[in-house]
Amino acid sequence: MKQEKLIEKSQDRLKIFGRIDKLEREGKFDIDVEDDPENIILTPDNIDYLKEKRYSKLKNKIANMIGEKFLDDLIKESKLIIKQVNGIENIEKVKDTGAMLTCNHFNPFDSFSIEDVFRNTSLSKTKKLYKVIREGNYTNFPGLYGFFFRNCDTLPLSSNKKTMEEFIKAVDTILSRGDFILIYPEQSMWWNYKKPKPLKPGAYNLAVRNNVPIIPIFITMEDSEKMGEDGFPLQEYTINIEAPIYPDKNKSKKENREVMKQRNYEIWKKIYEEFYGIPLEYNTESKEVSV
Q: pTM for this one?
């Protein structure tokens, strides 16, 4: 009987697990744990958010064509495994406005899984999906991923105030014309972290500002039979899409932001507890986590 070659667990991954454990104990949920390239500030003259310039349009078209093939190959080669999608009809309920899709963030490929879901909706024929990304991913991420980050309908954040003013304008335009925006309200990526993390208010501010709903998405995962090159099992994703949450016209902007954020978190918490069959608990030393 042929014995499968054992793959040694990546020391880099083990270090990341250690960082995650430390940050969770300290209650610092919004700090990334990956060794990302050094952040370079994105200035207004180096971004065309809506791809209005001729060269930007061309690169966007090419990048999206390459990106579609890349996604198809990921799925074909089982590097991205989508086991099940629950509630895809909840995306299709939003037809007359744009929407903010909020999702937990635990893998560089999780945005591809949302891309795949979106392109399997009827709305993809008339609407586009944009993705909010971190500043450094846009300014100096290397290789093919960097090419995608800069050209595939992305909306990079920035530590530059003027650039963020352009970001807000672009978001307003995108939502007003009925397109969708994927955003990660946890504000950090923790590799294969199963729990929902506390949420930041940005996504809900943008939704309330534009009077559009958020659509909460929470991806649960389980080990597949396929082993990754890092020595850990590749994950099978179940993508759980819940009903849109709309701003309440009888509430103030601040009240709406807090209510929508809290409702989003409660939905994610419920999905987590039902899927994994355990209560949501954090290993924070203070035992108090503000959501």
A: 0.94
